[in-house]
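hi! just following up on the protien thing from before. the input was this:
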Amino acid sequence: MIKKFKKIVIKIGSNSIVDPKLKKIKTKWLERLCRDVAQIHKTSKIVVVCSGAIALGSKSISKSALRKLEDKQAAASIGQIELAYQWRTKLKKHRIKVSQILLTLEDSETRRRFLNARNTISSLHNRSIIPIINENDTVATEEIKYGDNDKLAARVAQMIGADLLILLSDVDGLYNNNPKKVRDAKKISEVFKINRKIENLAKSQTSELGSGGMTTKIVAAKICSDNGCTTVITNSNKKNPISSIKRDNSTFFYPSTSTNSSKKKWLLNHLNPIGSFIVDGGAKNAILKNKSLLPAGIIDIQGNFKKGDVIAILIKSGTKIALGISAYDYNDAKKIIGKNSSEISKILGFEGQDEVVHKDNLVKFSA
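and the predicted 3d structure came back as:
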């Protein structure tokens, strides 16, 4: 079933790869997974997004739970070495080389860095090398981090144009009720559209080592769906974690129709807009008709952004209707909001764009 996909991102949660009590790698499980990976590697390009660095390194920092950010960062710096070593040695048995890539949120949110990371992964794939990716927890702060590897894996899938994201976790998939609380909860095998009903089913589940729950997995699936990529949520606790994936033991989320523009796909799932434009009814209607955002339709702006930053476009109620790349920085944008485009050069003292956000640099969320 998995063999038909040609570019695959495999995300592994902390609870899947690390024993929660011993804080050690589940060696036998990883060996079984690597056998699966080796088989798929023959016909597909693979990226592994692997959690577990903080969990592995935590035993060297403290005997109790880590609470301070700097302690978690220190644990990550220790555990990341162990993770990379385990992957290198286990896949070397199958004559597969690996590399390590540590990403931060800015590496996917800044277009130039997004493209640089994509080119690096492409170069590795051209040499049949499997990248092992994790968030760079040694430098990431609570304010500027993915927070969980589900979203990181989805952005990596988008980055490389993957056609499949596999989320290996401690759950079998999405249920119509929380299976830990409702005995007769039934698993949903296929999801063709992620709507509010599906999002409401995603009840967060705590775990001893991991940071994500079902909610973050649905967010990841939606990012992939918008980019033409199938997502599978499946339980990692199987003899063959990947090759045994079927509809009766997993949940498949299928792609929705979306833009073919690479830039707009990147924009569509941007996780951390720098600021916002609040627009009036006329600007809202123009945006929903695929037109550019002009300064005359902007009521207010928020955030200390620069030209080229990604900005959320909101209506008065606070509802986000679009994302776009600003043609102006905050100071210049503040001077021209509510003005006609013909007045821009006189106000700013230089010839600027007529549009604050051009339609080619804008994606809408609702019609």
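The CA atoms of residues 281 and 315 lie 8 Å apart.
The first strand starts at residue 7 and ends at 12.
cheers
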